[in-house]
Amino acid sequence: MSATATPAPHPAATAHPAPAPRVLPWLLRLHRPGLAVWTGLVAVLALALLALWGPLGDAAADGWRQYRACVGDGPCGYDQDAIVRYRDVYTYTTFAVNALPFLVAAWAGAALVGRELESGTAHLAWTTGLSPTRWLAAKIAAPAALVTAGTGLLVVLHRLAWSANRHRIDTSKSWYDSPTLHANGPTTVALALAGLAAGVLAGLLWRRTLPALVTALGFTLVLRFAADLVMPYLWPPVTRVTGLDTGYVTAGVAVDSGLVTADGAHLADPGCGPSFVKDCTEVYARLDATGFFTEYHPESHYWPLQLTTTALLLAVAAAAGAVSFRLLRRRTA
């Protein structure tokens, strides 16, 4: 009788942790609708700005040349439609470029972080080998690169279009017009990054979509308003004195204005009006005023104002990002 051979026991299967997902493809799949909307928006605005830089600007400039050539009181033919078309497209594109930081903030608060924490998608990612810190780093780094590239491209194109037509089209906006000033410079890019950081922080704070969206949007609005307020004081202004019959200097970013007395003192403007008005003449004589002073920033201060404000906005973005990481580590410790 032969003994039955007992099969040798198989070694126990070694359990291996699930591999961590590849971050970039995972982000692209998860936020494909947002990426498509952003790409389409940047493409449409870029085409509109290229048209302003090229054919729309040329047609409007020809229309203004025809208008200036008109003499007398008779009928005058000029391409009014081209002038109006350029103005409308410029207005809409400038508004859209200025609105980008607020769209980024709302999306970051609602879709990028708030919705994932509310639905549990973020926690699911953390259980597949993606640490919370790496998850947040990917959530900030990849969108920040896309936001910087897209917004930066539009700012460059906007400045090219505005510069090409500022001396050819009579209704071109001045360099210190607030929407034009921001759309022409890096403050828009910095505000978009600050809005992204604000949205991430709001999403981590609320962990819900709608409150995070509202908070991020409100913070970005306040930040834009604060940037407009402090920008004139981030660089030393120029002071110019004019006569009482001349009025104030208006070709720049205003800082302060008022009256200059005979001994050189600066007084607040009483708000009387032109010096040729009899009552105003008496007021100025009583105050011993000899002229008006204006503290303002000329066009040569454009880049100092832009760069100092940009640095301030980037500092706010960095601070919001640092707080976000600290908050996440505390909640997932």
Which keywords apply here?
333 residues; 4-stranded antiparallel β-sheet; flat; alpha+beta; 11 helices; disordered N terminus; 2 domains
Radius of gyration: 29 Å
Helix and strand content put the structural class at alpha+beta
Task: Give the domain tally.
Answer: 2
How many beta-strand elements?
4
Report what the structure shows:
This protein is α+β, with helices and mostly antiparallel strands and 333 residues long. The chain has two domains: 24-67 and 79-233 and 302-331; 238-301, no CATH class. Helix content is 64%, strand content 8%. The protein is built from eleven helices and four strands; from the N terminus they run αααααααααβββαβα. The protein has helices at 23-30, 32-53, 55-69, 80-119, 121-126, 132-165, 178-183, 187-206, 209-230, 278-286, 302-331, and strands at 238-243, 253-261, 266-268, 289-297. It has a four-stranded antiparallel sheet. α2 (32-53) packs antiparallel against α4 and α4 (80-119) packs across α9. The chain starts with 22 loop residues before the first helix and ends with a helix. The relative contact order is 0.11. Mean pLDDT is 88; it is low at 1-20.
